[in-house]
Amino acid sequence: MHWIRGDGGLCGSAVDLARWARLLHTGRVVSSASYAAMIAPTPVSSSGAADHGFGLSLIEPDARRKIAHGGAMLGYSAMAAWYPDDELTVVVLTNRGDAGPDAIERRLARRVLRLPESVRAPSRCPSPSARAFAARTTSASSTSSLPIAMATSGSSHRVMGPP
């Protein structure tokens, strides 16, 4: 299934990825103009922009700039984050697609930066009638319904579609 691969089949460790991220974010991989385009918010309408550039997310958890990229495929997941104001790189690689490397990365960054743990209010699951719904999909050849269901287990929620 080579068509699904965005990674180019590269292999490496968390240390390798941390070195790569540090080189990318300190101007030693692409030109400064290319990097500026990578971290510029993407315009999505005349009145706003998305919180990502070309391949990199741009967020500010805990009022700290964070430039990151994560992904998952076929049982693996990863998150690489750069905190430019703190000169901190955090990389998490897992051999589970559902391990949540972004949450692990945030906990590690909070610990290194000596920030308090995040306190999240519990979320409420929608009513039973809202747990199942149908999304409309369109293509050049047809319009069809795609059944989607939301499942809840404890405090975990998943949106599922057909296999």
Describe this structure in words.
The chain has 163 residues and is an alpha+beta fold. Helices cover 20% and strands 33% of the residues. It contains three helices and nine strands. It has helices spanning 14-25, 32-39, 101-112; strands spanning 43-45, 48-49, 57-59, 66-73, 76-83, 88-94, 132-138, 143-153, 156-160. A four-stranded antiparallel sheet has the order 3-4-5-6, with helices on both faces. It has a three-stranded antiparallel sheet with strand order 7-8-9, with no helix packed on it.
Short structural description:
The protein has 163 residues and is α+β, with helices and mostly antiparallel strands. Helices cover 20% and strands 33% of the residues.
Topology diagram in text:
Layout: H1 14-25, H2 32-39, E1 43-45, E2 48-49, E3 57-59, E4 66-73, E5 76-83, E6 88-94, H3 101-112, E7 132-138, E8 143-153, E9 156-160
Antiparallel strand pairs: 1-2, 3-4, 4-5, 5-6, 7-8, 8-9
**What radius of gyration results from the CA coordinates?**
19 Å
Q: Give helix % range.
A: 10-25%
- H and E string: HHEEEEEEHEEE
The largest beta-sheet arranges its strands as 3-4-5-6
Defining traits:
single chain; 9 strands; four-stranded antiparallel β-sheet; alpha+beta; 163 residues
